[in-house]
Specification:
Strand order of the largest sheet: 5-4-3-2-1-12-13-14
Order of helices and strands: EHEHEEEHEEHEEHEEHEHEEH
Helix content: 25-40%
Mean pLDDT: 95
Largest sheet: 8 strands, mixed
Low-confidence stretches: none
Distance between the termini: 12 Å
Number of domains: 2
Radius of gyration: 18 Å
CATH topology of the largest domain: Rossmann fold
Shape: globular
Strand content: 15-25%
CATH superfamily of the largest domain: HAD superfamily/HAD-like
Structural class: alpha/beta
Length: 260
């Protein structure tokens, strides 16, 4: 079997704390011959936590399926083309969006856009020397996707979306936060691509997620496992709802399906 795990709300909580039974469960699953992948919306540049990577994974699907690693090798990578990227930045800035460009090595943002912003402060603290300015690297970005703060009226936001609708699908997290993902990519297509690369049937996959942005992953996998006690009702998309992250949800699901 091939197992895919979301990060935020699934592998760890909002404090980046990882349940010991989660660690033990994934290691046991790998010892039993199952391949385990991270599958996240985070770009690879934002996956650096040693405790997380130290669990031991066979690969990483990052940035909503636009980058895939197997072992120590990048086996798939899709960057937003330069002309599309420049058009994107010019358009969203026209509407007052504050972007974070997400790539395999760097995240790009303007510090002035995120001063005093809780999420911005988290990114700045975690990224360190891997953070770059958008303007200082203008047109030279390596980015797989982007996120934006959108403190504008919804109708104007949607007008901006329409202008870029040929390039992106949108994951709206709140009235003020949106992810912009290149069309044709999501966590579900990431699973499909991994199966193609491994020569594995998608029926032999499990996906673990906690929120609505895991929908495509839960649907695509042979078995979709939703984490319990989350903000999102995943019963429409998941085949099984386990206990919460803090109540050994991954461990209990792995036991339930006899993967460990």
């Amino acid at each position: 079997m091939v197992l895919f795990f979301d990060i935020d709300g699934t592998l760890w909580n909002y404090k980046n704390e990882i349940n010991e039974k989660t660690i033990e469960g994934i290691r046991l699953a790998r010892a039993n011959g199952h391949k385990c992948f991270i599958n996240t919306g985070r770009a690879r540049a934002f996956i650096t936590n040693e405790n997380l990577l130290g669990i031991g994974f066979d690969g990483i699907v990052s940035a909503c399926g636009t980058m895939i690693e197997f072992g120590d090798e990048v086996v798939y990578q899709r960057f937003i083309p330069k002309d599309d990227a420049i058009r994107t930045i010019e358009t969203i800035r026209e509407y007052g969006f504050k972007p974070i460009l997400e790539g395999p090595t760097h995240l790009y943002l303007e510090l002035k856009d995120f001063q005093g912003d809780m999420y911005g402060d988290k990114i700045i603290a975690e990224m360190g020397s891997h953070l770059r300015g958008i303007d200082e690297c203008y047109g030279k970005w390596e980015m797989n996707k982007l996120s934006c703060a959108t403190e504008i009226p919804v109708e104007k936001r949607d007008e901006c979306f329409d202008k870029l609708s040929d390039l992106y699908d949108y994951i709206i997290h709140s009235d003020t936060v949106v992810e912009m993902v290149p069309k044709g990519f999501n966590k579900g297509t990431g699973i499909e691509k991994v199966c193609d690369l491994l020569g594995e049937s998608i029926e032999n996959t499990f996906a673990f997620g906690d929120s609505i942005n895991d929908k495509e992953m839960l649907i695509a996998a042979g078995v979709g496992v939703g984490m319990g006690e989350t903000y999102h009702d995943l019963t429409e998309y998941a085949d099984y709802i386990t206990t919460s992250l803090d109540n050994d949800g991954i461990w209990n699901a792995l036991k339930h399906f006899e993967l460990i």
